[in-house]
Amino acid sequence: MGKKLDITGETYGYAKAIRNTGKQYHGSYIWEFECTLCGKRFEAKIRDVRYGSVKSCGCWHRKNLDKMDTDEKFGQIEGTNVSKIVSKKIPQNNTSGHKGVSLAKRKGRKDTYVAYIYFQGIRYHLGSFKNIDAAVNAREEAENKLYADFLEWYAEEYPERWKRLKKRD
């Protein structure tokens, strides 16, 4: 159980401590705070406010999301994460060693390799294959068909972003 601190009047980020509510959650006291940006009162764990994971009632985050280019910030354009397309890095949870190919283990049946690709927010199932080479070929063929024109358009439309992406890869 955490130590009972009196932080009344202290400000962390945009959250000014008003009072301890007497409630606890996972060993951390819940306090009532006042947002110094908008005046709204809200409750939060003292630990979250003191360590910076809660900075305000949420108005600061919403206000800044409206201002920033979320597509650029999160790498999304037309429902596609361009940095993931360009990157040759294989995701950590990948078991086949190839992007867009996974091993489907089926009880009582032979294992198959499933090929898939994501593009513009849609997952395309490319087929189930008996061997990994066929699945990888299907994935590469789909990459050439779906990604080539899109990446060419992206490079022309957003040359600065494209340069940064190519530099990282």
Number of strands: 9
Largest sheet: 4 strands, antiparallel
Percent helix range: 25-40%
The mean pLDDT is 86
Strand content: 25-35%
Q: By helix and strand content, what is the structural category?
A: alpha+beta
Main sheet: strand order? 1-2-3-4
Distance from N terminus to C terminus (CA atoms, Å) equals 47 Å
Q: Return Rg in Å.
A: 24 Å
GO molecular function: DNA binding
Protein name: AP2 domain protein
Organism: human gut metagenome
InterPro entries: DNA-bd_dom_sf
Keywords:
2 domains; three-stranded antiparallel beta sheet; 9 strands; elongated; DNA-bd_dom_sf; AP2 domain protein; DNA binding
Describe this structure in words.
With 169 residues, this protein is of the alpha+beta class. The chain folds into 2 domains: 11-65, no CATH class; 70-168, no CATH class. Helix content is 36%, strand content 30%. It has 6 helices and 9 strands. It has helices at residues 46-50, 59-67, 70-74, 82-86, 132-157, 159-168; strands spanning 11-12, 15-25, 28-35, 41-45, 76-77, 80-81, 101-104, 112-119, 122-129. The strands form 3 sheets. It has a 4-stranded antiparallel sheet with strand order 1-2-3-4. The protein has a 3-stranded antiparallel sheet with strand order 7-8-9, covered by helices on one side. Strands 5-6 form a two-stranded antiparallel sheet. Strand 3 and strand 4 (41-45) form a beta hairpin. It is elongated. This is AP2 domain protein. GO terms for molecular function: DNA binding. It comes from human gut metagenome. InterPro entries: DNA-bd_dom_sf.
